[in-house]
Specification:
single chain; alpha+beta; 11-stranded mixed β-sheet; 4-stranded antiparallel β-sheet; 24% helix; globular; disordered N terminus
Length: 496
Amino acid sequence: MRRLRLLSALLLAPALTGCFASEGADGTSDDTGDGSRLRVALAFPPAENLSPYGADATILSRLGVTEGLTALDANGAAAPALASSWRRENDRTWLFTLREADFQDGTEVTPAAVAASLTHATEAKPAPAALAGVTLTAKAEGSTGVRVTTKDPDPVLPLRLSSPSLAVLSTKAYAGDDGADPVGHATGPFELTKVMGATAATLDRFADYWGGRAQASGVDVKFVADGTARANALRTGQVDLAEAIPVAQAATLDPGTRKATATTRTTSLLLNTASGPFENAGLRAAARQAVDTSVFAKDVYEGYADAGTGIYGPAVTWAEGKRTAPTGRARPADADGTTITLATYDNRPELPEVAQVLKQQLEKAGFRVDLEVREYSRLESDALDGKFDAFVLARNTLVDTGDPVSVLASDYTCDGGYDIAQLCDKDVDKAVAKAERVTDTDERQDAAMAAEAEILGTDAVVPLVHQRIITGVGTGVRGALLDPYERTLVGTGTRR
């Protein structure tokens, strides 16, 4: 099988020839002189017109376009970004002190502008995942301060404000009627200058970036949903960076160019608890019982993953020692030929293969399975609307906030903004709400694991594997930013 995959990849190598010419905003070549341009292939085309409030937010942060008041450091703690410091004034109020910085449109990053940007995020529909269950207000305080107040105590607010979906944009970004426009209105080292729909984008160095001058003069981005095409483009020197290299294509790359990073991403089977066959808890239990998770890490991911153990995987290093067994699970019912629709997307090439294996396992258990595979941007709205019975999702559990509780609130509660499982369970909501109130880090982790047990007990989610992501990095590239939260890729020191 691996030899066939390798041969297929080699035969398809010419498919993207000429697609990655490095061009500046004016269409001229810029491979020499004042820093070469970077050529990047991303797996996910914009699903929401590059809105910072949804799934596209990480596209902007990975390309060095946007940033928030805070960031995550290597240990997952809140670190300074547009805010140089902060302090907690009481259990509901924090004061953030801004550093001197400019927006890419030439205006100054002021307390009023930051407060307005955060206010726009709170008014977005649907709400950004980082604000699931959270009500906050932001007010300017003097010449350098922004006071953020939450309706309820929020001990992890600095972590929450690191979310890519809470990036700070200038006042001009909200001038139109189409929501927040990041083109030319952000603060990162690279300015988005041109977007060619869902196919490509051009970025130029932002010369006045507060964090120092970027070494690359710009970034030329192609959105390439086909994983084989991304791997071929890197292997043949058409791109400098290619994200989400399929494990099946890893062998086609020089060992020095494939970088495997343990991530907090878990691939799971989500079952629609609100409508259709899996509204029945017994059928959810039957589906969970039918799944053999051991085959995915070994066969589908070829060792670039670990077998699923929970919502949080090995990259969340504290989780395993605190995990408790799910309780209150329903007894499995007889599938008896029940027909279900199983959906996934092909931007991550392993997922259709995961879905095929799941189809076989579920059919062996007595289900009849209709499989639907699309590109993610053509699938997301239907998934969020509960139009599928089952959905295979690869989800970075800490990407939204860095806080383990936040993903539970956004993905598994009645008011969650990313609740593909359509789960609304009073015991789950109670456990998540309890975890959200805990201030002490160790105790908050314990509460998160108790909430995880409640969620797993509903059989709304079946964790399959915990991924190691493979990024293709050209031999001449230095300074690529690879992190377990998958928020970064290109920064000031990324160059070729």
